[in-house]
Design brief:
alpha/beta; Rossmann fold; five-stranded parallel sheet; 6 helices; globular; binds adenosine-5'-triphosphate
Length: 204
């Protein structure tokens, strides 16, 4: 039974000069516990698909049906960390916004920071981190609110291959252990994250 159903999704961006058909005729179902990787070349509309799934962009046409009580967590392309907030405060942001920040949720974030080797950096600012560390902070921020579905946009592009292997194993374990589902997009067909995806959708 799918927890997310997408049918004939379409997105046209309207700029002053022209219309851009970013996504057309895209359909798929996501089942509970499933990990889907969407792969396609740069500019084919992958990020736009994820933005429509988390309501950051309106769709132009098609259907998105999400099962009741399913909570979506989005890790944007690039890391979009807030430079004026410390690592810990960046990770707690979603919990603050959802009014879910308490001792238990903070403990969970501290546990994730430790697991990802960032516990010595909780009071550092993003500008003092490497690209890979920033991506891990961004992942923790996404996981902090315990979403049922993770939307990961080129999540580990700044990590070296070895680290990506390790992180993809971690993400796989988290998804399995916490019974999460995930949709990852990437343009890189050699992305080690493919090892953990059950379904690979080629888009364009
Ligand atoms: N806010 C926007 N306004 C106008 N056009 C946009 C906007 N965002 C994206 N586009 C256009 O829509 C198309 C798809 O963009 P999108 O960012 O979804 O591609 P992508 O597959 O994620 O690319 P990449 O692999 O480089 O991240 C591109 O032609 C892009 O120029
Ligand atoms: Mg993109």
């Amino acid at each position: 039974m799918p927890i997310l159903k997408i049918k004939d999704l379409k997105k046209i961006y309207h700029t002053k000069k022209r219309e851009i058909l970013a996504v057309d005729n895209f359909s798929f179902d996501l089942n509970s516990g499933e990990f889907i990787a969407i792969v396609g070349p740069s500019g084919c509309g992958k990020s736009t698909i994820l933005k429509m799934l988390c309501n950051l962009e309106d769709k132009s046409n098609g259907e998105i049906n999400i099962e009741d009580n399913i909570h979506i967590g989005y890790m944007p392309q690039g890391d979009s960390l807030f430079e004026w907030r410390t690592v810990l405060k960046n990770c707690l942001l979603g919990l603050e916004i959802n009014h879910n920040l308490n001792e238990e949720s903070k403990k969970y974030v501290m546990h994730l920071l430790k697991t990802y080797g960032l516990d010595d950096f909780i009071n550092a600012y993003p500008s003092n981190l490497s690209g890979g560390m920033r991506q891990r902070v961004s992942l923790i921020r996404t996981l902090a609110t315990k979403p049922d579905i993770l939307l990961l946009d080129e999540p580990f592009s700044a990590l070296d291959y070895q680290t990506r292997l390790a992180v993809s194993d971690d993400v796989y374990k988290i998804i399995k252990k916490e019974k999460k589902s995930a949709i990852m997009v990437t343009h890189d067909i050699s992305d080690p994250m493919f090892r953990i995806s059950m379904t690979v959708l080629k888009y364009k």
